[in-house]
């Protein structure tokens, strides 16, 4: 037989048990439930495809691209943190924004890398030996970058690049827009590129415009 007080007592227990599911007052609840979020890492802006931990570089989504966290799509470009690094250079590849369809015939990507190494920071704005011309200055997300072009070719492979370098918050940032591949006629039968070089550069220009800085 049910006790006459069982129903109200049970209801009170259920209210206490489910109390944590109610909305927290402003300034409590979510922050207290995730103390790791206060450990110095800034959350990416809503909609960012990539955001560096802390108040660093970020990239908004770019149609027709996907992200990769390695730099291994080009025969002529090493998978180092920037294009054409010095032998003693030390940096970290952050992200590659890769044009969809990239393959061995033609690939295109925007690479972003960073170095805190003193020698890299000191030489950050100096164009590499492979650069063509003295370069110019371009603002990316409000930060001035030194811009220069580079190109390479060997064994039926080719590479062309627009490289950007800046010292920001004490670090050297490298952004490289790279179009590379193999001449289609060396294949038997000849292969069709997934996209034209002009189309690739157009998409990479949109990727560069999507770069910004977390505040």
Mind explaining what this structure looks like?
The protein has four helices and ten strands. By secondary structure, the protein is of the alpha+beta class. The protein has two domains: 6-37, no CATH class; 44-213, Jelly Rolls. The strands form two sheets. The chain has a seven-stranded antiparallel sheet with strand order 3-4-5-9-8-7-6. A three-stranded antiparallel sheet has the order 1-2-10. The chain is globular.
* Number of helices, counting only DSSP H or I runs of 4 residues or more: 4
pLDDT average, as an integer?
81
Tally of discrete structural domains: 2
CATH topology of the largest domain: Jelly Rolls
SSE succession? HHEEEEEHEEEEHE
Main sheet record: 7 strands, antiparallel
Shape: globular
- Point out poorly predicted stretches: 1-44
In which order are the strands of the major sheet placed? 3-4-5-9-8-7-6
Q: Could you give the distance between the termini?
A: 65 Å
Radius of gyration, rounded? 25 Å
In short:
With 215 residues, the protein is of the alpha+beta class.
Features:
215 residues; alpha+beta; Jelly Rolls; 2 domains; 3-stranded antiparallel beta sheet; 10 strands
